[in-house]
Structure formats: structure tokens, C-alpha cells
Amino acid sequence: SDVYKRQLIRGAIGEYRGYEVKTVGDSFMVAVDDAQRAVDMAAAIQLRLYQHKWPTALDCVYVDGEEHVIDDPDDTQGPEAGNPWSGLRVRIGVHYGPVEVILDAVTKGYDYYGSTVNVAARVEGVTDGGQGGVTSTVMDAIKPTCPQYTSKLLANTSLRGVRDDVELYEIRPTGLEGRRFDNPLVFDEAAKAAAMHGAAKGVLDANASMSTAGTDSRVSFVPLTSATRPVRNAVREAFKALRGKDRIHILESLRRAWRIELP
Q1: Is 233 strand, coil or helix?
Q2: Cβ neighbours of 152 (radius 10 Å)
Q3: pLDDT at residue 65 is higher than 70
């Protein structure tokens, strides 16, 4: 499956005139000299990975891990069944700005350095598998919606090693509108409104996510202060290794212990 993934990704890199800087493990670092082509490439990669015919056993890995659970992994995955999940799920982060380019004397290729590179890597780190995240800097330089994709605001959040908060958006390829993510950055308008009006308190002020019973709502758009920001960052780091349902279980236990009323 890794061979197919690399072939599909490299095909998109070539088509959208990107430059493969390097690979680190199973990750790609790619430079593109135009923000619109970078986003188009990211959307194309997600769609091509989805449309590829993967072994059924690969889909069962995600089902066994209880991520985005489906009823029957043998016959409901993929485009033919209208299911928005199929095959490998990769995270993609895109940022746009100046970089430092240095020729590597050993590889004879160019390497890229600077804050633009770091921000792109941090954006990738907070997305979910099968999701593409971009910064507001990228959004300012592209079409927010086109036939190939739609965009959606995720959150204004801090990223590790980045001084200022970053406004993050999701780029959703056309045809994958049905995907749902456990990513704590995702929120809907009702959850956002509740947070903005102070209905979410206590542990929710730490910017952790909590699902409301029977829905896909997430709460993550809340005001941060110098006192709550370290708490939020600590909760986020601790929760990265946990599955969605485990996060919810812990938060619900804390909510009851601290007698926090849900909105």
C-alpha cells in the first residue's frame, strides 16, 4: 500500500508542478511556487487516494481501530458504495510564504527552511487522516470555493513552536463532503455560538473537544487567556494519543466531577 501511496502522490506532484524536497519516513515535503496549485494538488491527492482500489483488509484496519466506523467493511467502503472513506488516510498541511532555499551538497537537491515550512508541518500535525488543512494566508491567495473543493473555517488556534495564533481552514475535495472527523479543531456553528456566549466553561475553556449526545458537534472556538492557554495546550498534547471516544469519556468524567453544565 505504501508503494501505491507514493505513486499516487508523486503523480499529483508532477501534474501540479511541485518540487519533492524530501521524504521523512512515510511523509512528503513538497514545495509549490503558487498557493492555488498547492491547494489544488492537496485536494487531488486526497481524491486520488480515495478513488484508488485498495485491499479490503486496509479498510478493516480503520474499522478495527474504531475510527469512522462503518457497518460492514466488506461491502460499504469506497466510491462505488457512496461511502466517503476508502483506503489510506493521509494528513496534509499547506502554508504559503517566503522560504530559505539551500542546495544540499550531498543529495544535490534543494532543501527548504524557515517559518513557512514549520507552520505547514504544524498544520499537518493537527489535521486528521483524510483531511487537508490550510492557513488563512493560503486562503487569502486562492479561490475559497471552486468545482474541485470547498473550504471551511476550523479554528483560530495556537500551533507548537509558532508565536502567533493561526487561523486554520479545511479544504474538502468535491465528492468527499460526507467525511466526519474526530479532530478537536472541528466545530459547527451551533457549538461556536454556544462557546462565544459563554455557555462552555471549565474544561471546555481549555479548548478540548466534546461531542453532544447523538451528534457530530464539537466545541473548540472559545476565548483564550494567558491563564487558560497553557491548560489548553497541555490537554491537546495529552489527548493526541487518544481515540475520539476515549477523549469524550475523560472529558465527561471531568465535567461531572467539576459540576459543569452542558449548554
Answers
A1: helix
A2: 14
A3: no
171 three-class SS: strand
Q: Which of 110-120 are b and which e, b meaning 16 or more Cβ less than 10 Å from the residue's Cβ?
A: ebbeeebbebb
Residues 55 and 1 sit within 8 Å (Cβ to Cβ)? yes
CA angle at 187 for the pair 169 and 45, rounded to the nearest 5° = 40
Q: What is the pTM of this model?
A: 0.66
* Cell, residue 90: 493521509
Confidence band (pLDDT; 50, 70, 90) for 58?
A: low
Beta strands in the chain (DSSP E): 19-24, 27-31, 92-94, 100-103, 110-113, 132-135, 149-157, 166-173
Q: Is 24 helix (H, G, I), strand (E, B) or coil?
A: strand
> Is the separation of the CB atoms in 59 and 2 below 8 Å?
no
Under 8 Å CB-to-CB from 168, ≥6 apart: which residues?
123, 126, 133, 134, 135, 136, 153, 154, 155, 156, 157, 185
C-alpha cell at 43: 485536494
pLDDT at 131 over 60: yes
The answer to whether 252 touches 262, Cβ cutoff 8 Å, is no
Half-sphere exposure of 92 (CA within 13 A, CB side): 27
Query: Which helix (DSSP H) or strand (DSSP E) does residue 119 occupy?
Result: helix 115-126
- What is the grid cell recorded at 91? 494528513
- In this structure, are residues 42 and 18 in contact, taking their beta carbons and an 8 Å threshold? no
> Measured between alpha carbons, how far is 148 from 157 in angstroms, rounded to an integer?
27
Euclidean distance between CA atoms 29 and 120, whole angstroms? 9
